[in-house]
Every structure is written in C-alpha cells, then in structure tokens.
Amino acid sequence: MSLAEEYTETSEGSRLEQGVAYIQHNSRAYLLIAPAAVFLLAVVGYPIIETFRLSLYQSPADSNIETFVGLQHYVEIFNSDIFYRLLWQTGRWVVVGVAGKTLLGLLIAIHLKGDIRGRKFFRTAFLIPWGIPYAISAVVFRWIEHPQFGYLNAILLKLGIIEQGVGILGNPSIAWLGVVVADIWIGTPFMAIIFLAGLQSIPQELYEAAAIDGAEKWHQFRYITLPQLKSVVLIATLLSTIWTFVSFDVIWTMTGGGPISSTATLVIHIYQVGLQNGNLGRGAAYSVIGFLFLFVFAIIYLRIYTRGGDEL
C-alpha cells in the first residue's frame, strides 16, 4: 500500500471518528428537540404535502370522489390571464404595503428613541393599531373612506380639494390604495417596535465618536444606524412580506376582492376558487404556487442580505 493510500484511509477514519463523537456528544440535544421537530412536521409538513397531493386531483367540495388529473390545474393556471393579473395585484399590494410599513416604522422608531416628552405613553399608544383585530380595523377604515359619511371625504371637502364625495373603495382604479393604507396603519406599529429595539442596541459611543469627527446627522444615520440595523431590517421586512402576502381579512372585510376583482390577491382568489366555487383541486394548485413563490423569495432575500458574509 502506498503512502497516499495510507494517508487517505487515515483521513477517512479520522473524519468518521469525529462524526461519531459529534453525534454522541449532541445526542441529548437531538432528543430534546425531537418532540418539537415531530410536532412541526405534523402541523406544517403534513398540510403542505396534502395540499400538493390535492392539487393533482379534480376534487369538488360537494363530493368525496377525486379524479387524478396530474398537472392539469397548473397548466391551466399558467395559461390563464387571470393568474398574471393576480400576480401583478399581489406584487403591488406587497411592495407598497411593506415599503410603507418599513419607512413609517423606521421614522417612528427614530423619534421614539429620542428624548421626547411622553415617550413611554407614545411607545404604548403606537401598539394599539397592531393589537386591534384586523377585521375591526378594516371595518373602521371602510367607514372612514365612505363616500357620504366618511371622515376622509369630509376633510377633503372642507379643504376644497374635492367637490363631492369620492367612493374610494368603489373605484377599481384606486380601491387598492384605500385597502393598502389600512394595512399600513395596522402593520406599522410592529415594524416601529422592532426597529426601536434595534436602535436601542446600537452603542451610543459610535454616535459620540462620529459627532466628534464632525459627522452630520444624515451621515450618522447612513454609516452607523443603517449598517447596525441590517439584521433587524432583514428579519422585520421578511416577516412583513410573508404576512402581507398571505393577508386575507383586511382585503376581504373592506372590498371582498372587488370592485371587479381589482383588489383581489392570490390569497383572495384561492378562497374564492377553492371554497366559494368548490374547486378544491384548483385552489390547492394556487396555494402550492403561492407557497413556492414565498419559499424562493425567502431564499433569494436571505442570500442577498448575507452575500457579504455577515451572519444574522
């Protein structure tokens, strides 16, 4: 046996021994997390597998008979103009909603971090919109934007901006704006509190050193605050994106996806197709597509933010 072969066998044996030792050393940890892992597989894994299985069948809600159709649902969805319109409306809803929550949340967090009068009161008060059930908040905003009795139209009429009440939620061109404003109002407090926690973890010495060097407030924000908040912004925006994508109650309560499906997102359409129309197989196929979109987005998003080698 040559020296190279002996060295290879020795290296392989050493790696095997290290692997066995690592498993033995961490076996207790694996046993402790096993119940949680089994629970997650049962609660999360099974529904995903069952949804994918159902998407391969023609399964009417009023019948126990399932007919295997393979990828037919997917082919019909991707060949449908409705699907691409839903993608556009869902993307618009998510991008505007998450951007609004992030910017307003960061602005509020910066002000709440400062030494302002009543800071404790405002920190508590800003959590109220997030603590109210979403459906109740949606009903409130539906009345605020009412063309005859809403406060928004009353204010605009008083200021002379409009001459008569505008039916925001009844106009297919601007109804989505009326809904996304409500969603931003609901979700901003969560972003503000998360950003505030991140801001408070930044060492004050960094700002003091920057001020001594003559750095202005904008430069301190750009070169100290934003880099230090990178991991916080990543987690907050990722969670907000997922929650906004799957949001149902705000849209359904305010417009039901109308008028003329102008505020319908992928989630709203899944409900309409699968439950209202009774086409469970087609609804499941839409669900699988939505899940894959979110899964791929999360992977790409995490890779972009960690590309520089930083860990969360």
From TrEMBL:
Major subcellular location class: membrane
SUPFAM superfamilies linked: MetI-like
Keyword Mitochondrion: no
Protein family according to the UniProt entry: Belongs to the binding-protein-dependent transport system permease family.
Bilayer-crossing regions: 29-49, 93-112, 124-144, 174-197, 232-252, 284-304
Keywords tagged on the record: Cell membrane, Membrane, Transmembrane, Transmembrane helix, Transport
Alphabetical list of CDD domains matching this protein: TM_PBP2
PROSITE patterns found in the cross-reference section: ABC_TM1
Annotated localization: Cell membrane
UniProt GO BP: transmembrane transport
Topology in the lipid bilayer: Multi-pass membrane protein
Gene Ontology cellular-component annotations: plasma membrane
Superkingdom field: Archaea
Keyword match ATP-binding: no
PANTHER family, per database record: BLR7065 PROTEIN, SPERMIDINE_PUTRESCINE TRANSPORT SYSTEM PERMEASE PROTEIN
Record-given protein name: Sugar ABC transporter permease
Residues annotated as domain ABC transmembrane type-1: 87-301
